[in-house]
């Protein structure tokens, strides 16, 4: 026995000695390799934000020397030695600055020194704050966006490595606007919007839109029925908020104008059915992004299980999403609230004023982005027979073509061959990983081709005339596209300045676990309002709040089942808060698209929609707190919340006069 132990000890000593010799040999090799000044180049960010970690990249151009050191090089960053592993000749290292100080990097004979002046994080709120305040005060969004973006560009320019406000000023056009227009997703939205404009122009000229309006007018004989038709169509096109907004807004506008429904009310119904439905439906273009964010948070939590806290979460991202629907207060309350406003024929705040003016005076409002368009260009041709098929078929191509495109671009045989997946899950996963931009482009292009072909073959217009009509439709989108580009530019600069990190940091601190869902809802709403992006907000807030929720529950000794309920609630609140902030923000792309599709003045749309969104948001926060504290089941929570909204509409809403007789 002792002999065996002695042999084992000798064997271990030999291995340890060999390892020591190998390590010493590797160190000796690194000391023998002399890296020269020209062996390295650096890629260092121009802008540093105080307290925000960023990444520097160093590239070694001498592959032989790297191979001699096993691709590990000792680099001194601000006096601290780091052993960096180079892959494909490149290595990354973290950089954080809290105050003005020099940045020094040394590797062999290579030396880099630069003074760093980090930008205070609180300055990141300035650009979106300027835009929102100017837009709401002066009711003009283009100049507000430009001033906000320029202010951000000047701030980042001042704190950048060159320290020049003027260089920052020029970044407005040569960096942020160019970035907004060069993003493939943004270009897809611009083309899709433009093609929808062309389709609307053609089906207006060929009498198809007028035939639809005439048909619906027989059913929707009053304002209430017209709003209900818009509401139902908004729910029916649930798979994508962009397609929903543009198709429903453009299709229903002629009918709602005829029924004296204000453009503001039409915009509200269109905007507030699009995102809530797309956010909670099981088969949408949102599902892939949502599952990706949730899975990332689950990976973070489970990596700490057994170390930072005793339990992880043994659920799939899809199961978490389904479970979170029990807490989807804002989207569901919003859909119920719109329905009550329509059925009870009541409104309050600025919306009531807009609706009363439309009913009594016939002044439905006008769009700020269409005042330069001659509406007569889109009146039907004279002496033609109005056919509904001329509008229904092209629009059906857009709607059904989008669904088919989502299935084609997201198809994965592995998903459909997995027996554990239900049909609904297979369909959701397929659409979740689809390329929604391709689907929208294919379907809108197909819809325009069908509209042009039908118009030309019926000899309503010649082929060249249909092309001219299409181009006229394209032109109606130009002003709105300018606003979209500027909104995307602002989102880019708020990302560079880490505005979301600042807003999230304001809410950090010690909180009880049952209050985390409501706090998350507020954080997500504020971030979405300030950045104008619900998707961007989800990408930021999900990784921040989901791990925090679970960790607080574990540290508080909460049972795993209760902790999971809080976690599901937080998951839903990120999504709900993102949609609420998006509804209230004048710089949101979906809010802008709603104004575009309905030809509504954009600021009036925001001004009239915000009281409704905040009302539903306030009720949602209250029931989020009540549900989390008392652990109420959803079957009780939702009816109570809807009843509270009913009381608000009943006692605060005012009857809208309607000469057409809707009550």
UniProtKB/TrEMBL annotation:
A single cellular component GO annotation: plasma membrane
UniProt keyword annotation of Cell membrane present: yes
Region forming the signal peptide: 1-27
Localization annotation: Cell membrane
Entry keywords, A to Z: Cell membrane, Membrane, Signal, Transmembrane, Transmembrane helix
Pfam families for the chain: Na_H_antiporter
Recorded topology in the membrane: Multi-pass membrane protein
TM region(s), chain numbering: 119-138, 145-166, 186-203, 268-289, 327-344, 391-416, 436-457, 477-494, 514-544, 612-630, 636-653
Domain of life: Bacteria
Name used for this protein in its record: Na+/H+ antiporter NhaC family protein
Taxonomic lineage of the native organism: Bacteria, Pseudomonadati, Bacteroidota, Flavobacteriia, Flavobacteriales
């Amino acid at each position: 026995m002792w002999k065996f132990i002695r042999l084992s000890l000798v064997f271990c000593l030999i291995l340890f000695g060999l390892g020591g010799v190998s390590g010493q040999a590797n160190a000796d090799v690194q000391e023998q390799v002399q890296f020269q000044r020209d062996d390295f180049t650096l890629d260092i960010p121009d802008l540093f934000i105080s307290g925000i970690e960023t990444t520097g990249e160093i590239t070694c151009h001498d592959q032989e020397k790297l191979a001699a050191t096993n691709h590990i090089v000792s680099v001194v960053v601000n006096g601290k030695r780091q052993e960096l592993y180079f892959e494909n000749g490149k290595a990354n290292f973290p950089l954080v600055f809290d105050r003005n100080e020099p940045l020094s990097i040394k590797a062999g004979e290579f030396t880099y020194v630069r003074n760093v002046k980090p930008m205070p994080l609180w300055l990141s709120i300035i650009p979106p704050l300027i835009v929102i305040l100017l837009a709401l005060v002066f009711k003009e969004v283009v100049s507000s966006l430009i001033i906000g973006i320029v202010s951000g560009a000047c701030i980042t320019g001042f704190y950048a490595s060159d320290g020049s406000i003027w260089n920052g000023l020029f970044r407005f056009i040569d960096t942020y606007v160019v970035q907004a227009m060069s993003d493939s997703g943004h270009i897809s939205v611009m083309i899709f919007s433009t093609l929808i404009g062309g389709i609307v122009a053609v089906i207006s000229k060929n009498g198809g839109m007028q035939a639809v309006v005439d048909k619906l007018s027989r059913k929707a004989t009053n304002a209430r029925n017209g709003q209900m038709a818009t509401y139902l169509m908004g729910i029916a096109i649930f798979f994508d908020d962009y397609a929903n907004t543009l198709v429903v807004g453009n299709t229903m506008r002629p009918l709602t104008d005829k029924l004296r429904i204000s453009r503001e009310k039409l915009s509200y119904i269109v905007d507030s059915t699009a995102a809530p439905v797309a956010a909670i439906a099981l088969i949408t273009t949102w599902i892939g992004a949502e599952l990706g964010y949730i899975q990332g948070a689950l990976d973070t939590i489970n990596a700490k299980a057994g170390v930072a806290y005793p339990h992880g979460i043994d659920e799939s991202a899809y199961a978490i999403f389904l479970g979170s629907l029990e807490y989807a207060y804002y989207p569901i309350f919003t859909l119920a609230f719109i329905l009550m406003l329509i059925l009870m024929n009541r409104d309050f705040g600025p919306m009531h004023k807009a609706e009363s003016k439309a009913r009594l005076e016939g002044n439905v409002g006008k769009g700020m982005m269409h005042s330069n368009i001659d509406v007569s260009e889109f009146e039907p041709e004279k002496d033609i027979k109005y056919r509904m098929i001329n509008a229904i078929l092209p629009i059906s191509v857009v709607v059904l073509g989008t669904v088919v495109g989502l299935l084609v671009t997201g198809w994965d045989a592995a998903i459909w061959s997995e027996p554990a997946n239900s049909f609904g899950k297979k369909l959701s996963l397929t659409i979740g990983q689809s390329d929604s931009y391709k689907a929208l482009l294919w379907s809108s292009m197909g819809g325009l081709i069908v509209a042009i072909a039908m118009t030309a073959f019926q000899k309503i217009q010649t082929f060249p005339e249909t092309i001219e009509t299409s181009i006229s439709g394209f032109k109606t989108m130009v002003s709105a596209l300018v606003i979209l580009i500027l909104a995307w530019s602002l989102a880019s600069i708020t990302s560079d300045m880490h505005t979301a990190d600042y807003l999230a940091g304001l809410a950090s601190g010690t909180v009880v676990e049952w209050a985390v869902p409501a706090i998350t809802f507020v954080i997500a709403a504020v971030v979405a309002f300030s950045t104008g992006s619900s998707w961007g907000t989800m990408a930021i807030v999900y990784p921040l709040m989901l791990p925090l929720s679970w960790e607080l529950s574990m540290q508080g000794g909460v049972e795993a089942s209760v902790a999971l309920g809080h976690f599901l609630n937080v998951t839903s609140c990120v999504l709900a808060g993102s949609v609420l902030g998006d509804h209230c923000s004048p710089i949101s792309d979906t809010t802008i698209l709603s104004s575009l599709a309905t030809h509504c003045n954009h600021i009036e749309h925001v001004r009239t929609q915000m009281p409704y969104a905040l009302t539903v948001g306030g009720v949602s926060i209250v029931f989020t707190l009540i549900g989390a504290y008392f652990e109420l089941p959803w079957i009780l929570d939702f009816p109570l919340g809807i009843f509270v909204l009913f009381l608000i509409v009943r006692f605060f809403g005012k009857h809208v006069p309607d000469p057409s007789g809707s009550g």
